[in-house]
Q: What sequence folds into this?
C-alpha cells in the first residue's frame, strides 16, 4: 500500500495525462456554445453528447451485463438514477447555464458542489465541520459573490445563475452516488449504462414537449471560423466524452484517485482559457479573482477531507483489474457530470 500523497506520483507521466484529460473535459462548454449559436437547444446538445458516448460504450456494457448479470441486476435501478441525475440533468443544467453565462462562470457555479456537500453533511449530522472546511466554504462563498459581480454595471442573468446552481446540486449527487464502498457495479456499466438511460431521458423529455429539442444542420462558427456542424458534434462526443474519460482513467491509475481529484480542478482554468481562445469570452477581473477564491475554497475542503480520512490508495495490482478502474469515483474527475 502506498501513501495517498506520495510525491513521486506528481512527477509521473500520469500527471501530464491528467492535465490533458482536464483540458479535454473543459472543451465541452466551448463546443456546446458554438452549437447553441447555430440554433441548437441545450437538450439537443446533451442528447448528442451522451447518446454518442453511449453508442461507443454499448458493446462493453452488453458484455458486462452478460458476464455479471446475477451480480448487477439488483443495482440496475441505481444505474438508471445515476444516468438521470448526475449525467443527464447535470449536463443539461450546465449547458443551459452556458447559454446565458460565460463558460467560465457557468463552470465555477457548478464547482460549488463540494461546498453544498459540506452544508448537507452539517445539516444532516448536526456535527460542525472542522475549521479548515469552514474556511474553505467561506472562501468559496466569498468567491461566488465576486464571480456574480453583484455590484457590477452589467445586469445579472438570474436564469443562468439558477441553472448553474442546479448543475451544482446534480454534481453533488454525483459525488454521493459514486462514493459507495465495495460497489458491485463495474464502472463501465455505471458510466455506459448511465449514458444510455440519460440519453433516453433527454430524448423522451424533448419528444414529450417538456423541453425544446432543436437540432440544426447549418454550419456554425467555432474558433472564429465557419465550420461544419460535425466539428462541434464530434468534439463533444469523441474529445470531451470518450477521450476525456479514457485519459482520466489512465491518469487515475498512475496518480491515485486523491491526487487526480486535485489535478482535475484545472478543468476550470482550462475552460476559461478555451472560452477565451475559441469564443472570445473572458470573465472580468473581479470574476477571475472570485474564481481563484472558489477554487481555493474547494482545495481547502478537499485537503481537510484527506487529513480527516487518512485514506490510502489501492495497490497497483488492484488498479489494473478491469472492474477496479475508478472511472466513476467522485475523485477521479471532479464534477464530471458534465
A:
Amino acid at each position: 500500500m502506498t501513501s495517498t500523497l506520495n510525491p513521486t506520483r506528481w512527477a509521473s507521466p500520469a500527471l501530464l495525462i491528467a492535465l490533458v484529460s482536464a483540458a479535454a473535459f473543459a472543451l465541452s462548454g466551448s463546443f456546446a456554445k458554438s452549437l447553441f449559436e447555430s440554433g441548437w437547444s441545450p437538450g439537443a446538445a446533451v442528447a448528442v453528447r451522451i447518446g454518442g458516448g453511449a453508442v461507443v460504450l454499448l458493446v462493453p456494457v452488453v458484455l458486462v451485463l452478460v458476464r455479471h448479470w446475477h451480480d448487477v441486476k439488483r443495482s440496475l435501478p441505481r444505474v438508471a438514477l445515476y444516468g438521470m441525475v448526475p449525467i443527464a440533468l447535470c449536463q443539461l443544467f450546465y449547458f443551459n447555464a452556458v447559454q446565458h453565462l460565460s463558460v467560465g462562470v457557468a463552470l465555477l457555479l457548478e464547482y460549488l458542489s463540494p461546498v453544498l456537500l459540506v452544508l448537507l453533511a452539517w445539516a444532516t449530522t448536526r456535527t460542525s465541520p472542522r475549521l479548515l472546511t469552514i474556511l474553505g466554504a467561506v472562501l468559496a462563498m466569498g468567491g461566488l459573490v465576486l464571480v456574480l459581480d453583484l455590484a457590477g454595471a452589467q445586469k445579472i442573468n438570474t436564469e443562468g445563475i439558477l441553472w448553474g446552481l442546479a448543475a451544482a446540486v446534480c454534481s453533488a449527487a454525483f459525488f454521493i452516488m459514486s462514493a459507495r464502498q465495495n460497489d458491485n457495479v463495474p464502472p463501465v456499466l455505471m458510466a455506459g449504462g448511465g449514458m444510455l438511460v440519460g440519453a433516453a431521458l433527454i430524448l423522451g423529455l424533448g419528444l414529450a414537449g417538456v423541453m425544446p429539442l432543436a437540432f440544426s444542420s447549418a454550419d456554425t462558427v467555432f474558433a472564429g471560423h465557419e465550420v461544419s456542424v460535425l466539428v462541434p458534434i464530434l468534439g463533444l462526443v469523441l474529445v470531451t466524452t470518450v477521450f476525456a474519460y479514457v485519459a482520466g482513467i489512465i491518469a487515475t491509475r498512475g496518480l491515485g484517485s486523491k491526487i487526480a481529484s486535485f489535478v482535475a480542478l484545472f478543468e476550470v482554468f482550462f475552460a476559461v482559457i478555451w472560452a477565451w481562445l475559441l469564443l472570445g469570452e473572458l470573465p472580468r477581473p473581479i470574476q477571475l479573482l472570485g474564481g481563484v477564491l472558489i477554487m481555493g475554497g474547494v482545495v481547502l475542503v478537499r485537503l481537510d477531507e484527506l487529513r480527516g480520512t487518512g485514506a490510502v490508495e489501492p495497490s497497483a495490482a488492484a488498479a489494473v483489474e478491469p472492474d477496479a478502474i475508478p472511472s466513476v469515483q467522485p475523485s477521479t474527475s471532479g464534477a464530471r457530470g458534465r
